[in-house]
Amino acid sequence: MAVTVTKLLKPLIPASVLSRCSNPASLLFNHKPSFRSSAAAKMATTSTSEADIKPTPSKVKIIDSHLHVWASPEEAADKFPYFPGQEPTLPGHVDFLLQCMEEASVDGALIVQPINHKFDHSLVTSVLKKYPSKFVGCCLANPAEDVIGIKQLEQLILKDGFRAVRFNPYLWPSGQQMTNEVGKAMFSKAGELGVPVGFMCMKGLNLHISEIEELCTEFPSTTVLLDHLAFCKPPSNDEESLAFSNLLKLSRFPQVYVKFSALFRVSRMPFPYQDLSSPLSQVVSSFGANRVMWGSDFPYVVPECGYKGGREAASLIANEVPLSPSELEWIMGGTIMQLFQD
């Protein structure tokens, strides 16, 4: 899209601030976040009715809170190799992503380090450096039993500019939990550095709820992102009802946010996934729209409904709830922008 950064930010940032800023792009994404500022803390604890005001910024952009990029086969052969055994079966290179985002009128995104490159963050780092006003990076925590994971986390945040970290519990050593010594050290360090921790509970929230609750209780200054509705499908049995109830109860921790993302993964229906209207309604009622954010899960969404379809599905589901226009603005961009602004 042939739009300058300054023009993009005019609806978002006061002219007096823009005029004093030598690098306007930094006002959108490219600066150190401060998640526990008084304004953010106030927003994190407001009820849904209080959040049903025009968000700050007053006119938000569409920001995708969850997607991946990986090297093209040519890039992998040249300088960004895939992790052995994790070669992708879908195209996920950045040029394809940018094309999809333009077609869907999505303005920015949080890139989550893909398992295809595992702990080699060089490809995502190169994308972040090339498009600093468009993308924010979420690195992948290395839970090795030595201290290398903490050192890597500090380097990725402080040197390479990543702004979040993902905890994948299935990468922990066998028999270990995310609440072990290494997990707690990394979770605490994330809070100290001011970056949120995303949890990927692919095998079910019930398996990990006690770990998440323990970490949130012990380290209340660390912001938490629950990927893909914490992998809670619309409940159809007692176990799924318990998982969804556990998700809603996490709203008692003001640092916890929910990604309404990868809708095709958590729905039991085809596009536009309208069985998610009730779960979305309950999540917004419990957390407030200003603690919920839409995400596509590109490129996996592409063969399911297309990238643009993934964005449209969120709006169609919101209309079924129904959500107010300002609540939808929070979910489609306001929440994640608030998290990544000072």
From TrEMBL:
Residue runs in coiled coils: none
Signal peptide (from-to): none
Keyword Lipid metabolism included in the entry's annotation: no
Ranges of residues in domain Amidohydrolase-related: 63-340
InterPro entries: ACMSD, Amidohydro-rel, Metal_Hydrolase
Key words of the record: Decarboxylase, Lyase
GO molecular function: carboxy-lyase activity; hydrolase activity
Family in the record: Belongs to the metallo-dependent hydrolases superfamily.
Protein name: Amidohydrolase-related domain-containing protein
Species for this entry: Citrus sinensis
